[in-house]
Amino acid sequence: MLKRQLMKAAAIGALLLTSSLAAHAEDVLAKAKAAGVLKVGTETAFAPFDFIDAGEHKGLNVDFFEALGKDLGVKIEWVELPWDSVLPSLEAGKFDVVAGPATITKARIARYRMSAPVAEASVAILKKAGDTSITKPADIAGKAVGVGKATAQLAQLQEYSATLSEKVTVREYVSFNDAYADLATGRVVAVANSLPNIAFVAKQRNGAFEVVTPAFGKKTYFGFIGTKDDDHKALLDYIDNEIIAMKKDGRLAKLQEKWFGTTFDTPDSVPDPAF
Amino acid sequence: MTLKLFTLLLEAALSTLGISLVSIAIGFVIAMLLSAALLSGKSVYILPARLFISFFRGVPLLVQLLLIYTLLPVIGINVPGIVAAIIGLSLCTAAYQAENLRGGFASVPRGLIEAADVAGFTGAQTFARIRAPIAIRLTFPALVNEAIMILKSSSLVSVVGIIEITKMAQDLASSTYQPIPIFASAALIYFVINSAIALLGRYAERSLKGASA
Amino acid sequence: MMFDPQVIIEKLPEIGSGLFVTLWLWIAGVLGGVVAGFVVATARRFGGKIVNAVLGTIVEMLRGTPFLIQIFLLYYGGPFVGLMLDPIPCGLIGLTVYSAAYYSEVFRAGYASVPVGHVEAAECLGMTRSQTISRIQIPEMALIVLPPSINLAIILLKESAVLSIITVPELTATVSAIGSQQYAFLEAIFILAIVYWVIVELTDRLGRMAENRLSRLRFSKA
């Protein structure tokens, strides 16, 4: 009796599965246009790309996707998640693309479709202003350093730590914001994050933090991230073209100037990342 | 801590309150179904109900929410964050409410059930008119406690993209660099809401008692 | 997405260390909470009106706010008032204080369940207050407080997953980090669910066994 019911449940499950797979076989770009909505997933603790300023979502990503949405004729619907849930949710089909942005790395290229670069992502150290014990990246050896969970910056910090005289005690925070907060308290002596991010934070918290140059990691770039399947191809092609078009007509440089206070010379694509 | 920030927290409190109340109500309905299954005397119903209660009491809500949000799509069930949050909280509270109700059902006097039997009530009628009302009245204080628990647990639903008090407090704390006033205000809002629930619960309990006397 | 348990199996030592941190924080937090909760309940019962009111308010505040918010306040707010705790001590203190609030209520109900006549009889026999507590009140309330204590311990195990948010390297933090590194998201969530579920079931069984034994002990003496 129970066995028969189980079989029945399994059959229903299989039916649901196949029907949902069939429903998925649709071009995402066409679907977004038809619905007038493009769903974009991101984490809102990654200033100046995405952050919450007194309750309002702001940043380079907001401006960029706003522009993209206008060109495409769709509204942007943001889905805000902790970073370590963003990629699983992308794979689960919760949204069409991830703003992030995410560092373009070998591992990610193997699994995801990365867009054309929108900024440089090389990793450097943020320290408390006036901390004379850290004047170059290698000075973090043997000390506690904060970094975001599930990030490429974490992977780079771990790789760099292994080359130092003494390993770094890596603290993984749910968001970089928490890591900055703990830099302020002094529980960590440094935060490792990409240059555009920490430069912005140092400027915002006027005088509290300082960036330690040079970058310790390899030269990397930020891009948006999507899945590799055929359904998403047209959308990600469109995003790539939009980035390159905005680069050519100077809109991207303007956005970089607005949010980073400087512009980056980014290549049109990163086929073979250094990390 | 400005008035504007406090207002933002209050706005976020509406989403905390909405999600929690809806989940408690749905959870209560599921808990009644679970109780009916447990009292049915048929193992086809009892075993799944027990498994359900054991699972949702045994797994942290954080993990349950991620399961519902990112694992269910594998079998074709893809729901938005708000639905995932409500499903997660409802199923979790259903398991706890069913456990509470079990105690209540156990204390319904046997004589009443037998009397209903003699009076020609069917099993379902006895459940709906005799056993359930008495069990609910007996376990009402536990239900109020559970409501407070769920309201607190809703602080975790930001993992599926919902902005409620706790997430808003986190965002504000990191943009203003003032964790103490902001988290303390968030705590205060939770405390006030929960105290209100407890007070209402006591008031309702008294009227329930009055009704039975 | 395919399910591949292999990536998780390779990381078993790391998962084991996360599990170890979860288990010892949980057990220490519960034991600390039981002791502190008992002290609070006793102080509220015998310490007079003011002590009762003050402690009662603190207990209500701890029970009326989410554990996550308490942990944020302690971890990120603490340093502003000179209380700088590392993640693990912070987690341990937070968990202990939170559980103490709940356990104090369990023991308060326990005290209330002991018939006044028994306490009065003990006093007439010339027992001191501490003798009355340890020889009459504790043994009599034991059976009453055991089931809610086990239930509470289970809730606290699950609450301890929240400590991953302040970088405590416990089970949830460890497994979800492995999941992200290996892109084994589903496997990670699955493992977490199973491990917590097993611990909770075991705790529940142990609790029921203790309950049976205690009631037999009690009624055989009577």
UniProtKB/TrEMBL annotation, chain A:
The keyword Thylakoid does not apply. Residues 1-25 form the signal peptide. Residues 37-263 form the Solute-binding protein family 3/N-terminal domain. Gene3D superfamilies: Periplasmic binding protein-like II. Keywords: Signal. The keyword Signal applies. GO terms for cellular component: periplasmic space. InterPro entries: Solute-binding_3/MltF_N. Pfam families: SBP_bac_3. It is found in: Periplasm. SMART domains: PBPb. This is Transporter substrate-binding domain-containing protein. It comes from Aliirhizobium smilacinae.
UniProtKB/TrEMBL annotation, chain B:
It is found in: Cell inner membrane; Cell membrane. It is a multi-pass membrane protein. InterPro entries: AA_ABC_transptr_permease_3TM, ArtM/GltK/GlnP/TcyL/YhdX-like, MetI-like, MetI-like_sf. Keywords: Amino-acid transport, Cell membrane, Membrane, Transmembrane, Transmembrane helix, Transport. One of its GO terms (molecular function) is transmembrane transporter activity. The chain crosses the membrane at residues 12-39, 138-160, 180-200. This is Amino acid ABC transporter permease. The keyword Transit peptide does not apply. CDD domains: TM_PBP2. It comes from the Bacteria. GO terms for biological process: amino acid transport. Residues 13-201 form the ABC transmembrane type-1 domain.
TrEMBL record, chain C:
InterPro entries: AA_ABC_transptr_permease_3TM (IPR010065), ArtM/GltK/GlnP/TcyL/YhdX-like (IPR043429), MetI-like (IPR000515), MetI-like_sf (IPR035906). Residues 19-204 form the ABC transmembrane type-1 domain. The keyword rRNA-binding does not apply. Its main location: membrane. The keyword Transmembrane helix applies. It is a multi-pass membrane protein. One of its GO terms (biological process) is amino acid transport. It is found in: Cell inner membrane; Cell membrane. GO terms for molecular function: transmembrane transporter activity. The chain crosses the membrane at residues 20-41, 53-76, 183-203. Gene3D superfamilies: MetI-like. Keywords: Amino-acid transport, Cell membrane, Membrane, Transmembrane, Transmembrane helix, Transport. GO terms for cellular component: ATP-binding cassette (ABC) transporter complex. Belongs to the binding-protein-dependent transport system permease family. HisMQ subfamily. This is Amino acid ABC transporter permease. It comes from Aliirhizobium smilacinae.
